[in-house]
Write a structure and sequence with these properties.
Elements (H helix, E strand, L loop, with lengths): L22 H5 L2 H20 L6 H12 L3 E2 H8 L3 H13 L3 E5 L7 E5 L1 H25 L1 H19 L2
Antiparallel strand pairs: 1-3, 2-3
Length: about 160
């Protein structure tokens, strides 16, 4: 500890006499808003993807592999902005279902390569129309203009945050 006093949310710092942080400010922070919005959007997509038994993150993984198959674990983690441990945990059910295979690279046994199987490609192809329905649903709820503005803002934000 550096000797600095840590204030609890909602409590006053007795030494300085500062007023407590309003809970609305804390709960309305950008992180909280993004997490809530992400959970709600994920619920919508997963409702549409349920008939093929995929979660939204699983669909995203299959989409990334369909776009560029036979990729390393680190490359895929970087593309998805996640760490290899989390990625590995998310890949296990897809591997178990036979949708992808994970092999050691031929040039370096420590580098693990990920590739879609035929079953994974077929499942992904069956999921695409369901994903499109989810996209259309969001557009209907938010409006085309607001959805495009949201996507543009998210893309710009991600680029800016990645350059830090």
């Amino acid at each position: 500890m550096t000797g600095r006093k840590v204030k609890r949310a909602g409590g006053a710092n007795a030494a300085s006499g500062e007023a407590p942080q309003p809970m609305a400010e804390l709960m309305g922070c950008t992180c909280q808003r993004l997490r809530k919005a992400t959970r709600r959007v994920t619920q919508i997509y997963e409702g549409f993807l349920a008939p093929v038994g995929l979660t939204s993150p699983q669909f995203g993984l299959l989409a990334n592999l369909a776009a560029r198959d036979d990729v390393s674990m680190n490359e895929l983690a970087e593309r998805l902005v996640t760490d290899p441990t989390t990625l590995n945990r998310n890949l296990k059910p897809l591997e178990k279902a036979g949708y992808l295979k994970i092999d050691s690279g031929s040039d370096d046994r420590r580098r693990r390569r990920i590739a879609l199987t035929e079953r994974g490609r077929q499942t992904f192809e069956r999921a695409i129309p369901l994903w499109r329905q989810a996209q259309q649903h969001l557009e209907a709820v938010l409006g085309r203009k607001d959805l495009e503005a949201l996507n543009d803002a998210l893309s710009r934000s991600l680029r800016s945050l990645t350059r830090q």
